[in-house]
Each structure stands twice: as structure tokens, then as C-alpha cells.
Amino acid sequence: MEKAKRFQVSLKVIWGSSIALAIMASIPKLFDADSTPGDLIINSSITLLFSLFIWYYNIYSLPKFSSQRTNKSLFNWRLLLSVVMGILLMVILVIAHQELFQVSKMDAPIMFELRGVLINLIVYMFLHLLFQNYQTQQMGVELERTKALNLGAQYELLKQQVNPHFLFNSLNTLKSMVDMQDPQSSDFILKLSDFYRFTLESRKLDLISLKEELQILDSYVYLLKARFEDGFDVVKEIDSKQYDCAIPPFSLQLLVENCIKHNVVSLDKPLQIKLYTENDFLVIENPIQLKRGTLSTGVGLNNINQRFQHLVHKEIEIDKTETLFKVKIPLIYDYHNN
């Protein structure tokens, strides 16, 4: 997994702000008739060195706390420690400059201390806000990464979803056909083989053409009709111009399976499922003839919806009346096989 981006502050920000503060600290000296170039250099150098120290001290103290929950308050014990350290440093810098330059007349030490505290507060609060923004961004990145990984894992499971009950029922149907010496047994075996060959090939793909998906559906329907005979039928009214569109593999198989799962399928009450295009949607329509005691959990439709959300950021549409149930899945016009 990609490592989190380390918190950094640009050198241009650090040095640029420090130089700017040094220049600003020397401006009052320009209007002082008694000031000399040496006074300007001393004021500037003290402010520059102090600002650089405050920047780097606060920056390198952040990793110590970055693994812990950051206090939302700007003012806490870390600020107090930074101010105390700044006051001590300013004392050291003033004394060092007095000894180094042998200056007999300098600004009162209290003026340097006040300047130091002000600089410390400005740098600390600015850096604290930058770090808070960095942590918020990292949390957002981690959240998106976790969401993507979770969706990816769910999608891989959905792609590999082939109902084991269907295989069990198909094998039982095949056994019955063989026992009865049904001449269609050979065709049934070939269609079953084709269906699972399609399954193995298509599970590696995120999207396939509608034409290929309909071929998979044809094999699936043939196997179902061997079991339900005339109690089940699929009517396709799809414009051939739409065959180059794409959908996630096994979407139609799962939707047809969902129809059979929840509705009565019998010779007395045949179930007819219609497939047709409407605008940029493929519509799967069936009459509502619910089985007794069947409670829909919506898991199947939710799984299909998640696949479309993950791949193309679109959702399926469901239209239900008292007599008809329609599921509309978006057709994808621009795609590349993965």
C-alpha cells in the first residue's frame, strides 16, 4: 500500500517568512537618527535566526505527536513549551550579539522578548493550522483508499458469484434427462459447459459487450427451460445497434435468476420475462406473481447496483407497480475491456 505523504513545509515559506520578519523588525531603525548600519544588521540577524529556530523547532516537534490524536485547541502545553524555549533562545541570542559585536547600546531586552513571543505565536499558530489541514487531508485520503479497497473486494466477490444452487439444480435436471434417455441430454451438457466456460472467461473482466452478455443469457435460459419447460420464457426485444454497449458480466443472469427466485414458475402460471431497451437503459420486466411465504431482502438487486456504482458511478432504477416489476440498468457506450 502506498505510504502516507509526510508532512512538510516548503523551504520558501520558512526562509521567506523569516527574512520578511527580519526586514520588518529593522524598519523602525531606519527612522531612528541614532541608528547605524550595525544596528540594522544586529536586529535583522537576531530576528532571522530566532524565526528559523522557531520554525524548525515546531516542525520537528510535530512527528512526536503525529501518531497521537491532535488536540483541537490551538493553545495547549506545547505552545507554552514553545514560548518558554523561544524566550530562552532570545536571551541567548541577545547576549551572544552583545559579546560578538561589542555593542554598548541596544534595544531593551524586553523589546526583543516581546518580539520573540509575537513571532513565536504567529509561527506556531500558522504551523498548527497547516498541520491540522494536513491531517484532515490524510484522513480523507485514507478514507477514500479504504472505501476503494472495500468496494474492490466486494466487487471481486460479486464477479465470482455463480449460484451453487443453480449448478445443483442443473445437475439434477441432467440426471433426470439421462435416466429418461432424453435426446436433449447431449445439448444440455453442451449448454451447461458453455455457460461455465463463459463464467470462467468473463469473471476476469469488469465489462463485456451486451452481445456477449446475451450469449451467456441464452445458455442460462436454455438450462432453465430444460427444468421449467413452457413454464418459463424470455422475450428479447433489443435493437441490434445496442449490442456494442457494455454491462458488467452476469448482470442479466442475476436479474433473471432474481425473477425466478421470487415468482411462481409453472405450466399453469407461466413466467414471461421481457428484455428491451429504453433510452440509455436496458429494461428487464416481469409480471408480479410472488411465491407464497417469499420475503425479498433486496440483496441481489443491491449487489448489481453496487457493481454499477463501483464501475461507472451509475445506479440501476427500479419501477414497480401492482402487476409489473421493472429493473432498468444503464448501458455503457464508451468502454474498454479490462
UniProtKB/TrEMBL annotation:
<dbReference type="Pfam" id="PF06580">
    <property type="entry name" value="His_kinase"/>
</dbReference>
<dbReference type="InterPro" id="IPR050640">
    <property type="entry name" value="Bact_2-comp_sensor_kinase"/>
</dbReference>
<keyword id="KW-0472">Membrane</keyword>
<protein>
    <recommendedName>
        <fullName>Signal transduction histidine kinase internal region domain-containing protein</fullName>
    </recommendedName>
</protein>
<keyword id="KW-0812">Transmembrane</keyword>
<feature type="transmembrane region" description="Helical">
    <location>
        <begin position="110"/>
        <end position="131"/>
    </location>
</feature>
<dbReference type="InterPro" id="IPR010559">
    <property type="entry name" value="Sig_transdc_His_kin_internal"/>
</dbReference>
<feature type="transmembrane region" description="Helical">
    <location>
        <begin position="9"/>
        <end position="28"/>
    </location>
</feature>
<feature type="transmembrane region" description="Helical">
    <location>
        <begin position="40"/>
        <end position="58"/>
    </location>
</feature>
<feature type="domain" description="Signal transduction histidine kinase internal region">
    <location>
        <begin position="153"/>
        <end position="231"/>
    </location>
</feature>
<keyword id="KW-1133">Transmembrane helix</keyword>
<feature type="transmembrane region" description="Helical">
    <location>
        <begin position="79"/>
        <end position="98"/>
    </location>
</feature>
